[in-house]
Amino acid sequence: MNSPAFSFPIVTRVWQSTIGRKFLVALTGLVLVLFLAGHLAGNLLVYVGREAFNDYADFLHHMLHGAGVWIARIVLLTCLTVHVAATVSLTRQNKAARQSYECPGTIQASKSSLIMIWSGFTILAFVIFHLLHFTVRVSYPAEAFVDPDYLLATGEERFDAWQMVITGFSNPLVVIFYVIAMSLLCSHLSHGVQAMLQTLGLRSKKTAPALNVLSIGYAALIWIGFVSIPIAILVFQFGR
Length: 240
Ligand code: HEM
Description:
Blueprint: H1 10-16, H2 18-43, H3 50-62, H4 67-100, H5 104-135, H6 148-154, H7 161-168, H8 172-199, H9 208-235
Helix pairs in contact: 1-2, 2-4, 2-8, 2-9, 4-5, 5-8, 8-9
The structure holds protoporphyrin IX containing FE (HEM).
Residues 39, 43, 57, 60, 69, 73, 76, 123, 127, 130-131, 134-135, 161, 165, 178, 182, 185, 226, 229-230 line the site of protoporphyrin IX containing FE.
């Protein structure tokens, strides 16, 4: 006779085991980490100029006849939801375990997981602000940002995403908020990438030093790339 656990679908069984949820955090984290590298590479086109940046934005919106951007959004949203839900569930479980077995090592571990949880929630708040800012464009009506060069060359209108970014980062408060959020994001990343590599079984005594350099180096590169954009636009008046 099958045990009750075998009558559950695979997803439920993965979710019910601690190692299953750790794997879900690691795999969804990997997707989000790769997204950040891709998003940064695209955003750095802001330095190339209006045409390159708006061509790239156009490409994203018209990929697979417009379906590509929605597939990417669904994948990202699913990964983000699973990542947050599994982390919260694991943290609750650890807290309950600690209450019955307290020792100095677990106090240290709980401090760093608390930092991860709070930096994670701050990043979530940032992502919501960022989506309203640049994707929903609550304060940037499409008719106010028409790409002038494209209009001149083709006679057609297209959204001037480049100008939106330049205008968005002309506000010092927005820039300060982005720099704080990017810094928390990268602290979360440097710890998260190490934890992810450990869960995926890549960490051993021999590989640990190289993996530490890799995760800190990756987080540092992402930080430098992302913060350079708002700072260059505000401080060096880039694009104006
Ligand atoms: C200086 C830093 C950043 C800049 C200039 C920037 C720029 C942009 C722009 C222009 C868009 C709209 C793309 C479009 O619809 O054409 C966008 C979307 C988005 N950004 Fe960023 N971004 C930055 C940092 C980040 C960070 C750190 C994250 C993640 C933590 C992030 C996550 C997203 C997401 C999830 C979208 C929505 C994609 C979509 O559904 O269309 N961005 N970003």
